[in-house]
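Dock iron/sulfur cluster; give full complex structure.
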Amino acid sequence: MADQPTSQPPKKLYIETVGCQMNVLDSELVVARLRDDGYELTQDIDQADAILYNTCSVRQHAEDKVYSALGRIKHLKRKKPDLAVGVLGCMAQKDQNLILRRAPHVDVVVGPGQLGRVPELLAKAKADAAPQLAVSLARNAGSRSHVTSSFDSYDADREPAVRPSPFQAYLRVMMGCDKFCTYCIVPSVRGPEQSRPPAEILAEARLLALQGVKEITLIGQTVNSYKHKAPDGRITRLSDLLAGLHDIDGVERIKFITSFPNDMTDDLLQAVRDLPKVSRYIHVPAQSGCDLVLKRMKRMYTASFYEDMLARLRETIPGASVSSDFIVGFCGETDESFEKTVGLVERSRFKNSFIFKYSPRTGTKADDLYPDDVPEEVKRHRNHVLLDLQMRISLEDNQAFVGREETVLVEGPSRTTTRKEGWDGPDQLTGRTHCDRIVVFSGPESLTGQFARVKIQTASAVTLFGRLAAVPDAGAACPG
Ligand code: SAH
Ligand code: SF4
Ligand code: F3S
């Protein structure tokens, strides 16, 4: 905390984050800036002097959740007129003044490109007794709304208290997205694709390592499209970045999400194979297994291209885990198209899949061009079918781990409902294998942040359960 004058107790900040890892990281940076402004975090919303929601617009459901949360805190604002309420992030950029109309008790609405200004805007809202709106401008007036800038994540003063854990941190390598898949709001709210200079990324990684971070997850909407061209013409690709990060002492594991199928180049696959600190795990969403649907989505690949990419990936990186995202019930998805997606999931044997029902987004091309013609109950049914299939595959593949000894990076006490999954060992810790599978096992909490060897005894579709076999020496060769 920044030093406080004795007469002023620290102000309390309550923050809730929805959406993807970009938002998790943005929240960390906002908290760091507010900490310097005299705020400290609270988990108790009733105690808060400022309540912030960092929001997501990717599906209607995510937005509805925020509007209902805003409704629920109205009474707090009546009780405590000095309470500051803020809506940050993607929904702020998308809905702008609409938020102030629907929830007049909101004081600040701040888009993802303006988050560095949150402390100043909170102060101004109070001084002027008027709500403040700060969003990025459209790139081309008159064209589809597309913002010009994104929050620059490099900030020497990051905030460990709101990280996934003290030794795990996100690191942004790219901002925005230029792919404009027809269903997706992200490019409109996050702005154009920009790759950060490698020197900045490496400096931030070194700083994180000094703060005790052992696992760094590089994030970008299409992280494997990362390409930075220096003024002297030198190109840095994601594979080069991985090699640079690999040399940083203290960094033990590196991951990157999310990959775009078309940009899965051989140099990247070879880097994952050859650099032992890089997790053998790739999240590369397919979205659909039907070419007609993929074309309407403007994903720019066919199902067979995707499957060939997957075959190349698995051939290059033995033991790799792959996960995917799917949208079911996209405009024009027939039973036949859906069966093609089922076929692709059957063959691909993903570690896991995130399955979403199509949610039309105002301002996207799909919403302009195609009717949302798959009934809700059909979407729900397809969601269940695909999820059941994926769970069966995940279970089968996880069972193949039983009897094996795996190296696990320990994340801390297990928060999963492991007992329900048929495991009743004491003192459970959780961690992940080199290929990102969750492992729950018994052991002392002091193992947190270290590698441990765990003998797998049983498995569910989402978790491997085992017992501690050994703790490798510090600095031992990286996990296989
Ligand atoms: N940049 C990442 C994903 C960003 S959004 C990528 O390209 O893969 C995360 C996931 O949300 C997407 O992969 C997609 O499956 C889903 N999604 C995006 N827009 C959606 C919409 N309008 N309705 C339902 N799901 C959507
Ligand atoms: Fe959205 Fe497509 Fe960009 Fe991913 S690649 S963020 S799905 S537009
Ligand atoms: Fe949502 Fe914004 Fe991420 S729309 S998925 S929080 S980039």
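Observed: The chain has a mean pLDDT of 90.
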